[in-house]
Amino acid sequence: MKSERDEIETYDNNVEQGRRGTLASVNLNRNLEAKVSNPLADIPVDALEKDVEAFANTHGLAEAITLLKKGALIARDPANWEDLELEDDERQALRTETLHRWKHPILLYVTIFICSIGAAVQYVPLLDNNIGKH
């Protein structure tokens, strides 16, 4: 079993070589049941938090560092988000998201429906032109 120090050294070596996480050699064309590994799973917590801080500082998000770190930790291990130190409202929001995946504002569904109709209407003249040419 790797120690935390070994994980950090491996991570640092991968970063120096331009790689992150686990590199899987899976032919997705042949193995349709293949699952892509979580690229954050192999990054040690300390290194992940440093990456989040660097990203936030680079992109002017310094006031959101705490929230971004929590999000990165949840993304690193989504199955165990309840073990993290979160506020009650954050826990409730994650529970709602987990238990009610399709609970969104009705306007979102209306927007998707209208855009779909628009795309279909836009496609009809193109289809008519292509049929007429043959």
Describe this structure in words.
With 134 residues, this protein is an all-alpha fold. 59% of the residues lie in helices and 0% in strands. It has helices spanning 4-16, 45-58, 65-76, 88-99, 106-133. Helix 2 (45-58) crosses helix 3 (65-76). The chain is extended. The chain starts with a helix and ends with a helix. The model has no long low-confidence stretch (mean pLDDT 80).
Give the low-pLDDT segments: none
User: What characteristic shape results from the CA principal axes?
Assistant: extended
Biggest beta sheet summary: none
Tell me the number of helical segments per DSSP (H or I, 4 or more residues long).
5
How far apart, in Å, are the first and last alpha carbons?
A: 65 Å
C-alpha-based Rg, rounded: 22 Å
Taken in chain order, the helices and strands follow as: HHHHH
Task: Looking at this protein, list some descriptive labels.
single chain; 134 residues; mainly alpha; 5 helices
Describe how the helices and strands are arranged.
Elements: H1 4-16, H2 45-58, H3 65-76, H4 88-99, H5 106-133
Helix pairs in contact: 2-3
Offer a quick outline of the entry.
This protein has 134 residues and is mainly α. The protein has helices at residues 4-16, 45-58, 65-76, 88-99, 106-133.
